[in-house]
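Hi V.,

You were right to ask for the full record rather than a summary. Here it is.
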Amino acid sequence: MKLYKLFICAFLGLGSVNTTALWAQDGDQILDGIGETGLIARYVFDGDAKDWSRNNLHGRSDAKLNFINDELFGKVLSFSPDNKTFVVIPGEAFAGEESLSISGWIYLRSAQSNQYFFDFGKNAKSHFFAAPAGTKNDTGFHAGIAASGDKYQTSSPVLAADKWNHLAIVIDIPSQSLNTYINGVLVSSAKNVKLKLEQLFDSNLAANNLLYIGKSFLSEDSYLNAKLHDLRLYRVPLTEKEIGKIYHNALKEEGIEEEETETAAGDLPKYPKTAPQLYNQYLASVSDVKVETAAGSLPRLPRFVKGVYRNGIEGGEVRVIWPAPKDNSSVLKAGQYTVEGSIAGTDLKPKAVVTVKAAKETPAPDLKLKVFNLDEVSLDADLHGHNTKFIENRDKFIKTLAKTNPDSFLYMFRNAFGQKQPEGADALGVWDTQDTKLRGHATGHYLTAIAQAYASTGYDTELHADFAGKMEYMVNTLYQLAQMSGQPQTAGGASVSDPAAVPKGAGKTDYDSDLSNEGIRTDYWNWGKGYISAYPPDQFIMLEKGATYGGQKTQIWAPYYTLHKILAGLMDIYEVSGNKKALETAKGMGDWVHARMKQLPNETLISMWNRYIAGEFGGMNEAMARLYRITNEPRYLEVAQLFDNIKVFYGDAKHSHGLAKNVDTFRGLHANQHIPQIMGALEMYQDSKTPDYYRIADNFWYKTTSDYMYSIGGVAGASNPANAECFISQPATIYENGFSAGGQNETCATYNMLKLTSSLFLYEQRAEYMDYYERGLYNHILASVAENTPANTYHVPLRPGSVKQFGNARMNGFTCCNGTAIESNTKFQNSIYFKSIDNQALYVNLYVPSTLKWAEKKVTIIQKTDFPNEDHTLLIIKGEGKFDVNVRVPSWATKGFFVKINGKEEKVKAVPGSYLNLSRKWKDGDTIELQMPFQFHLDPVMDQQNIASLFYGPILLAAQESEPLKEWRKVTFDAKDISRSIKGDPKKLQFDIDGVVFKPFYNTYGRHSVYLDVTLK
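Predicted structure:
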C-alpha cells in the first residue's frame, strides 16, 4: 500500500482526502505520522492566524492580514513589503523546549535578499532565523542561529521564486546539529552546534521572546514578499523521513512503497540479539509453567519464572514475554494447548501448558476495606522535625490554591450563560480560554482540590475557613446558572426544558462548537433543565452525530471528560461539607445526561466511546455510579452502564471477549482516555455486583503494570503509535515501541492508575497493589512538582539526558495534568492507612510520618519515621483495644523485614510482597518498630534488559546530567553485588557512580538519565 493511502485508511478512516485541511481536521493523534504531543503549534493560514493545535498559541498582527485564494492550497496568507504586515506568535511557544523543528510552505514572489521567513529569539544577538533568499551579507538560502557570541548556519542555493517550496529547519540539541530541508530533502547541515535553547528563549518570562513570521528583528531588513501555508512548530527534532511525509502528503503524492504499519522513531541505539542483556547473559535455563483457565477467558500467564544461572550469579526470577492474542479463539473449548514465550537477549523459549476447563462462574471478591476520611489522617514532620517531601509539595499547592480567585474558574461558565463578569475577574489560560472546547475542565479539578484542601487543613483555621468560603461561592454560582438552564429568560417566555430536544442556535444551520465572542450561543433557556457546563450543549449533541476531535467549529474536544470533572468536584464538596446545592446541581446534570443517552442505540454508543479524545469521557461511569450510591436513584446507575466502552470491555456488542475475558484490547490506545473508564467499571461493580466489571479492572491492572509500565510507574509513552499519550502498539515492547521523543508517562495517567490501584486493594489485599502505589507515588507524582513552586509536569521525559518541564506555577492556565496535580497534592494522606469494614483490622500501606485518628476504635496511631532516608518506622498506639495491624512487607525488602513490639524483637515470617499480620489486644503506649533494610536493585526494560533503572529500596535514582545525550549513559556494575560499584551517603540518598551523581528522581530538577545502559562484570 502506498504510504499516503496507508495513513488515510489507518488513521482517518476515510476513503479519500481531497484537501490538506481535511487531513488536519480529522483530529486524530497522528498528523503526517507525527504525534500530537510533539506539536507546539500549527498555523494553516486559511483565513486567520489561529493555532490549529490544542495549545491556543494564536498568532496576531497589528495590521489586517491578507488572505488570497491559491490553486494548490486554497486560501493562504499573503505577505507584501508594501503593507509591512507580519505575524507575531506568543512568546511562551518556545519556553523550556528541548529541540525545535519549523516546517512550512512558502511561495516567494521575489528572490530579493534579506527577506525573513521567520525570526525567533530574544533580540538580534540571540535568535534563530531563516532567510530563504539570503541576507544582506550572504547570498543563498540561510538558516542561522546567533547565541552568546556563537554563530551557526546552513547554506544552500537561493530558494526558487514563483513556486511553492516546503521548508523545514531542525535544531537537534542532543545531536548538536542544525539541518535544513527543502521539499523533503536534506540540503544543508551544520554540525557541532553547542547550544542550549535557553540561550535563545527566556523560559521564565515569555514577554522577552520575540517570535516573528514575515520579518526580522531589524527594522531596516525587508519584509517578506511571499505566500505562506501550514506553518508548524514542533518540540521534537523531525527526521528526514517525517519531513518527507509532511511534504508528500500535502501534495497528495504516493511517494515510495513502505511497510503498512508505523514503526518506532528508531533514533535510540539498537542492540544485536547476541549482545549481553543484564543477568540474562548468565542465564542457563528457565522452568516451564502450567496454568489453568476457564473456557472463554485467556489464561493469566506469569510474567516471571524461575531461572538457573551460571557462575554463581543470583539473578532472580526471569521476565518472560508471552504472545498477546487479540481475541480468545484459543480458549473457546475445553482442552489443553501450549504457549511459547521468549526471553530478551537469549534463545530460551519457556513454555506454558494451558489447561482449558469448562466455564464455571467464579465469584468476584466483596469489598473488605474502607478508606479513612482526609480529616482523619494528617501528615507530620519526619523523625528529625523536618518537613517531608509530602508536606513540602502539599504546602506549595495549598498556599497557592488559597490565593486563587474563584471567579477565574467561573469565568467561562458565566460567559456561556451570557452573564456579566464580576469586577476584577480574569479568565484562565491554556485549555480554558475563550475558544477552547475543553474549557471548564480546570474548574472541576478546582472543586475537588478545594474540597480536599478544606478537609486537610484542620491544622490551620484561617486556611480551613478560606476553602470553606471558596466552596460555598463556587457552588452557589454554579447552582444559580444550572437553575437558569431550560427556563424562560423572562416570565412566560419561550424555553426548551427537555434535554433531548435542544434546538440549534439562533441563526445557525447546524450545531457547532464555535465559542468565539462572535459565534458562541448563550440561549440557556433552550438547553434543557439542569444543564451546567462552561460551553453550550452543542458538543454533546455533535458527539452523538459523529463529530471528531479537533480545533474547527465542526469538531469537539471531550465534552463528557469535562463534565466528569465538574460532577466529581460537586460530589466531593457535598461529601466533605454537606452542601445540598452541590448535590442538586450534580443531580440536575445527571438527569440531563440520562434524558439524552437513554434514547441512543448501542451502535451510536460504541462509536462515541471509541472516538479518539472526542469520545473521552473521563470517569463518567464512575461519577454516575457514585451519584446513584449517594441518592439511591436507579436512573443514575442505568446511565452509568451506558458509558460502558463495549469494544474495550467486551470486544464487541456480543460480548465475545475483551478485558472481561482477559484479552488486551487497549494496546495502542490513548492511555488516559481509558484508565478512568476502568476505574468506573470497578465503581459500577460495587453497586451492580456484575462480576465482569471486576474482571475488567483486575485484568487491566495486571496487564498495564506488567506490559506497559516504565520504572517511574507511568504507563504510556509510545513512539509506535507516534503519540506519547498512547499505550505502545504491542504489549511488553517498551524499548522497541516506547520512549517517545515527545516525552512519555503523562502525569494524570499515573494519577488515575493510583486511584484504580487503591480501589482494587479494597477488594483484594494484595501487596503488589501497594508496591505499585508506592512506586508511582514517590517516583512520578512526587517527582512531577517543581522545586520552589507548584508548577508541575505534563509528560515526564525518560530518554537520555532529559529535563522535566514544569508549568502552571500560578494556577492560571491548566492542562489535564495541571488539573490532576492540584488533586494529587492535596490528598497525600488518603492511602497511608485503610481499615476493614468491620473495624477489626488496620492496614499500614505506606511508611509516611503521619497521625491517624481511628474514631470507631477510639485509637490514635502515630507513625514516626524518616523514610525513605532511613529504613525503619515506628508506630505508636494511643488508646487500647483488640484489632489486627497488617503492615506491608515491600517486594523490594529482600534483605529482611524485622519487627519489634515494645522494644522486643518478634519472630515473624515476613515474605517480600505480602502483608504481615500483627494481632493482639493493644494497650495505650504500645509501639511497633519495623525495619526493612534497603538495597540497590535494577529495574530493566522487559524487551531490552541491559537498559535499566537503578533503585535504592523503593526510590528511583537518576543520574544528574550536564547536557543532552544521544545515547544511554553507560554504567558497569559488579555482577554479584552491584553495590560494590556505588559510593555515597544513604541517609542523604545521594550516590556516586564513576564520578556521576545519582539522587532521587523526586529531587531532580535539572537534566537526568533515568535509564542506564548496564554492563555486568
